[in-house]
Amino acid sequence: MAPINGTVLIADDEDQIRNLCVSFLQRFGYETISARNGVEALELASDRVPDIVLIDVMMPRMTGLEVCRELKARHSTQHLPVVLMTGMDQPEDVVNGLQSGADDYVCKPLRLPELHLRLSNLIRRKQMFDMLHDHNEEMIETLGSQSRTLTELFTLSLQMNKSQHLDELLSVLTNSLSRMMDCRRVSVLMFNRSIRRWNIVASLGIPQDVATQISLSEDSPILRDMSAGGQPAIIDPTNAMAVELYGANGAMAFSELPVMLVPLSFSNELLGVITLTDRTWAEPGHFAPTDITVLTYVAQVAGIAIKNRLRQEQIRETQDVTIFALARLAESRDELTGNHLRRVQTYCRRLAESLRLSGHHQKALVPEFISELWRAAPMHDIGKVGISDNILLKPGRLTPEERKEMEQHTVIGGQTLEAAESLLHHDSFLSMAKDICYFHHEKWDGSGYPFGYSGEEIPLSARITACADVYDALTSARPYKPAFSHERAVGIIAEGRGTHFDPTICDVFLTLADEFNKIRLELQDNDVNAQAVETTFAQ
Ligand SMILES: [Fe+2]
Ligand SMILES: [Fe+2]
């Protein structure tokens, strides 16, 4: 059978011309459809779109020009080439035909070889057009999906960089990867220095009790390959290397499906490994080259974000320890109670958390405030470094002059931190620490020092610290007093409700009294000297 060059719709009311065209074009390898008038031509063109239309101008019911205009107006046939057949004595038909959108014309009587050439040229042009059109559609589709992927990547990158903590960052990462890669199970393994093993630190779709049991040794061949290659890799259950990953617990976590492993690196340091498995639509374990490209990019961006977060957390930890050590150094001259600062910061945190839970100061008591309070509270007495030994270490009662000087520790501490804060060009917890130093001896009724502030004039952080500090001072032995019992201390604080202490904070303290007692016992001083002094004064 001769190859089909294309399908031609022939429309002519004269049987002789129509039949001539049909037999001629079929001989040249065209498939033909024929219509006897314009209306029939339009119906046939809608039923089965041909490659070209050859149509007589003068026809009953609907002229060739009208058919042409209608075909060019319809979306499905607007690019269908139309060739008009017209008599030599009707030149105005040619102009009208071309104006109506026709692509070409042939004159009657027909010169059949010319007709063949004109039709084949137009069909080739249409095939080219169709090819470009399809290609264009594919490009639009590809660009659309690439643009969606880029938007996802951009959003992921922003969210990871905005995350305050590593846990939050990893949760953003696992959720995004699950959505982008259509994987039901995603996890991130990171190295735990204390046990020297790689554990799952964030996961999605893996039961928590199973995830916590997954653990890879430091010299795991899988991780060695990840470190060396730095490329995503599929670990198949049949692969010998997978034994460690697919151990008893691995099988539960990954369901014996192939797992895509993606290294999370920064420079040449392997920070973690992403595992992806259980795809919702593709063959298990099948990842297209574009998926690998996207995963590699995500891993690079995530590697930088994780490294930054780890560095920030290390800096923060170092700052915390340094601040705590300095605060402790400042206290070391007079305090024999080694855990005083630990207890005070723990009491402060519990008071702040409970205040928030009981519906008080919810706007102020955001997690950042509570974590800053935890860091700042130990600094409340750093100003004592400026108080002379004969006053600070005096075992008996202070004279009024000595008391005045002693009270200056609030101002010395506050001014020191104010000066330090002014050297920074950003908000810092030093501002809260400064408030705590200045105001932790103010009282709710205005009878405190150094400024005699009252009520909410006293910053919330200082009001909380005052309650925590007094409870600890009362329950600890000091050179001038024995340690009071927990019950007695609670009674004294209750008596100070609305005079010494903020009544709301005092109420929350009373609900937490048992918990404070537990914290006190857990963090009690094991310093032999402190205990000896405490015993002496308690007698
Ligand atoms: Fe103080
Ligand atoms: Fe204190």
Automatic annotation (TrEMBL):
Domain called Response regulatory: residue spans: 7-123
Iron in keyword set: no
InterPro entries assigned: CheY-like_superfamily, Cyclic_di-GMP/3'3'-cGAMP_PDE, GAF, GAF-like_dom_sf, HD/PDEase_dom, HD_GYP_dom, Sig_transdc_resp-reg_receiver
One Gene Ontology MF term: cyclic-guanylate-specific phosphodiesterase activity
Lineage top rank: taxon: Bacteria
One Pfam family from the record: HD_5
EC number of the protein: 3.1.4.52
One GO biological process term: phosphorelay signal transduction system
Domain HD-GYP: 315-525
Residues bearing PTM 4-aspartylphosphate: 56
PROSITE patterns found in the cross-reference section: HD_GYP, RESPONSE_REGULATORY
Keywords: Hydrolase, Kinase, Phosphoprotein, Transferase
Protein name: Cyclic di-GMP phosphodiesterase response regulator RpfG
Provenance organism: Kolteria novifilia
Lineage of producing organism: Bacteria, Pseudomonadati, Planctomycetota, Planctomycetia, Kolteriales
